[in-house]
Specification:
Elements lengths: L4 E2 L4 E2 L2 E2 H22 L1 H8 L4 H30 L1 H22 L16 H32 L6 H20 L4 H10 L13 H18 L21 H17 L3 H7 L5 H6 L19 H23 L6 H29 L8 E8 L5 E4 L6 E3 L6 E4 L1 E9 L3 E7 L3 E7 L8 E5 L9 E7 L5 E5 L2 E6 L3 E2 L3 E3 L2 E9 L2 E9 L4 E6 L14 E6 L10 H24 L6 H26 L4 H24 L6 H50 L1
Parallel strand pairs: 4-10, 12-19
Antiparallel strand pairs: 1-2, 2-3, 4-7, 5-6, 5-8, 8-9, 10-11, 12-15, 12-16, 13-14, 13-17, 17-18, 19-20
Helix pairs in contact: 1-5, 1-6, 1-7, 2-3, 3-4, 3-5, 3-15, 4-5, 5-15, 6-12, 6-14, 9-15, 9-17, 10-15, 10-16, 12-14, 13-14, 13-16, 14-15
Protein name: Solute carrier family 15 member 1a
Main location: membrane
GO molecular function: symporter activity
């Protein structure tokens, strides 16, 4: 690509050269952040062994912290270090956090017996929490600085380029989330462009000035609450006794925008669940796309792919087309439509969840127990269970549910025999009926949850009179003694070949597996070893594989991404355009603060609401956002757009005119004093003359 450089003004195609370094920095930084965040909830669930609600809660606590620390970053940048140094210093903290997080995932550090499981989980939990805190401090601290620092590079005549910058900036955020690279690359690129940046000097602790001014206005208004005092046009005008009128005007602008921010957290409540609830939803789905197999966390890449596609389409096609239709599609109207699209996305997620729930097994409650029967003999057996019709075995296809305790059932064929089995609460069991009914009965505990990470739980039951060995390249089931079962082994999806042998005899059994299933393979005593034993093995499907395809999540990702483009990209531009010159980072921090509040809302719902059905939770969130969308549309209708630069210029002009008036008055006063002084002097000389004559 050939670019035309203008070295005098340091511009490329009308854009400041420094912008390209900022854009690349943001692109690389997002590589690091989103690469870690994409697998975070799965790390909590599968490595730290937390349940879904706990994993969701800690995930959103971390995300909320990432969007709370921008307030600290804004204070440091605006009042102490400046945006450039703040980005550099907190980036070091960020990198240390990423390293700490990576070390916490090395299970060999505490895996003394080398069984693949850490022996001191507390160490890994503490280390990961420290790492996440440092990451939140680093990435959150630089968040309000990078966007505002980029906006500072443009001059007044580059308004169009500034608007384009925010779209490209958001493209880089999502491009970074699509790929992965070391975070140190982003820092080096950012530092290389140091000499080309416009570095605005810190203008004092503006956040403290704002808080003090607001506090004084409230206090002064309370002191003058009596009706005898005249009303002010705005309650902030009560601060005029102590603070500069320009500062008060700037605070009014900020408060006007912050008032609009009140309903915004609900959008982020829904949006950030694509990294938690939606990822957990994908663990119960089929990710086989033919030539491509998608893992649950990889479904999140649909979002940045759509972002990279939709942002240019929106900017160059959709928005201009709406404008040509004569519709005034203002930023706040775009944000309203974005919220509506996010609500539709969660309705789609609820519909997908309903389909998933139809395929999930019903596990026993703490007061229930489930039983499956497996006939290990070669002759059919008829069994009569209490409350169920008689069934003929070799194996029951489904589990039978009973209240925990002793149950009595009968074998009606080949002979009538009664048996009693003790069933423990909250457990699934398989009872093996021996070939000789009067022989020893064996029962095993079965899985009471779907296998994790989309794996398949497999075991073999030996019904032969000799020991059988079973193995496959992915797992070794070892020696299985007569009339017993192996332990469960976890295997991935795909085609597997199992080798069965006893002494010098062997055979092979082939089976293809999907995702999240559990099978019991029964080796009958009639098995004849040979080249294959495909027809001899009896298969019992304990847990069905995931059958709802992951492609069904694409519509919800499309709607949430389209909503993000209209809401978030527009919100970034809106926040910058409506912010006073010395409070842009503060208002950016306020925008990011709404993200933190949104994640805290998820945290509250996950921990306190305890909604039993996940689809109902999705519908609840969609309904809340729809209601908030209506409220926001009303607030947006009454909002008046402003030009902070023009307002500030008017105030400065007014101040200058006041200064000129003051100078003029002082000059006039000086002239009057000089006239008086001359008059006094002349009178004094006349008096002296009279005295001389006398």
């Amino acid at each position: 690509v050939t670019m035309k450089y203008n070295f005098d003004s340091k511009e490329v195609c009308g854009y400041p050269v420094s912008i390209f370094f900022i854009v690349v920095n943001e692109f690389c930084e997002r590589f690091s952040y989103y690469g870690m965040r994409a697998v975070l909830v799965l790390y909590f669930k599968y490595f730290l062994r937390w349940d879904d609600d706990m994993a969701t809660s800690i995930y959103h606590t971390f995300v909320a912290l990432c969007y709370l620390t921008p307030i600290l970053g804004a204070i440091v940048a605006d009042s102490w270090l400046g945006k450039f140094k703040t980005i550099i210093y907190l980036s070091v903290v960020y990198a240390i956090g990423q390293i700490t997080m990576a070390v916490s995932a090395i299970h060999d550090i505490t895996d003394s017996d080398r069984d693949g499981t850490p022996n001191n989980m507390t160490f890994h939990v503490v280390l990961s929490m420290v790492g996440l805190f440092l990451i939140a401090l680093g990435t959150g601290g630089i968040k309000p600085c990078v966007a505002a620092f980029g906006g500072d590079q443009f001059e007044d005549h580059q308004e169009r380029q500034r608007r384009t910058f925010f779209s490209v900036f958001y493209l880089c955020i999502n491009g970074g989330s699509l790929l992965t690279v070391a975070s140190t690359v982003s820092r080096m690129v950012f530092i290389v462009g140091s000499g080309m940046y416009y570095k605005a000097e810190p203008q004092g602790n503006i956040m403290m000035d704002v808080c003090k001014c607001i506090g004084f206005a409230v206090k002064n208004r309370y002191r003058h609450r009596s009706k005898q005092y005249p009303k002010k046009q705005h309650w902030m005008d009560w601060a005029e006794d102590k603070y500069d009128k320009l500062l008060i005007a700037q605070i009014k602008m900020v408060l006007k925008v912050l008032f609009l921010y009140i309903p915004l957290p609900m959008f982020w409540t829904l949006f950030d669940q694509k990294g938690s609830r939606w990822t957990l939803q994908a663990t119960n789905m089929d990710g086989n796309f033919g030539l491509l197999v998608i893992q649950p966390d990889q479904m999140q890449t649909v979002n940045p792919i759509l972002i990279l596609t939709l942002v240019p389409i929106m900017d160059s096609l959709i928005y201009p087309l709406i404008g040509k239709c004569g519709l005034n599609f203002t930023p706040l109207r775009r944000m309203t439509v974005g919220m509506l699209l996010a609500a539709i996305a969660f309705i789609c997620a609820a519909l997908v969840q309903i389909e998933i729930d139809k395929t999930l097994p019903t596990f026993p409650t703490s007061s229930q127990s489930q039983l499956k029967l497996l006939n290990m003999g070669s002759n059919p057996v008829t069994v009569k269970l209490p409350g169920y019709d008689a069934l003929s075995l070799p194996a029951s296809e489904e589990y039978f549910t009973f209240e925990a305790g002793n149950i009595r059932f009968s074998i009606e064929r080949p002979e009538v025999t009664d048996f009693t089995i003790d069933l423990a609460g909250g457990r699934r069991q398989t009872c093996f009926i021996p070939s000789t009914i009067s022989g020893e009965w064996i029962s095993t505990d079965d899985l009471t949850s779907k296998p994790q990470e989309g794996n398949n739980a497999i075991r073999f039951v030996n019904g032969m009179n000799t020991t059988v060995n079973v193995s496959t390249p992915a797992a070794n089931f070892g020696q299985i003694v007569p009339f017993s079962s192996s332990n469960y082994s976890q295997i991935k999806n795909g085609m597997f070949t199992f080798k069965l042998w006893s002494g010098s005899q062997s055979c092979e059994y082939n089976r293809e597996f999907g995702y999240g299933s559990s099978y019991t393979f029964f080796i009958p005593n009639t098995l004849v070893f040979g080249s294959t034993c495909q027809e001899s093995i009896t298969v019992a499907e304990d847990i069905k594989p995931n059958s709802v395809h992951m492609a069904l999540q694409i519509p919800q990702y499309f709607f949430i991404t389209a909503g993000e483009v209209m809401f978030s990209v527009t919100g970034l531009e809106f926040s910058y355009s409506q912010a006073p010159s010395n409070m842009k980072a503060v208002l950016q921090a306020g925008w990011l603060f709404t993200v933190a509040i949104g994640n805290f809302i998820v945290l509250i719902v996950a921990e306190l609401a305890k909604i039993p059905k996940q689809w109902a939770e999705y519908v609840l969130f969609a309904s809340l956002l729809f209601a908030v969308c209506v409220i926001f549309s009303i607030m947006a209708y009454f909002y008046t757009y402003i030009d902070p630069t023009e307002i500030e210029a008017q105030f400065k002009k007014s101040v200058n005119e006041d200064d000129e008036d003051d100078k003029s008055k002082k000059l006039q006063k000086t002239e009057v004093e000089l006239v008086k002084r001359d008059s006094i002097n002349s009178h004094g000389e006349e008096d002296k003359a009279r005295q001389t004559k006398m």
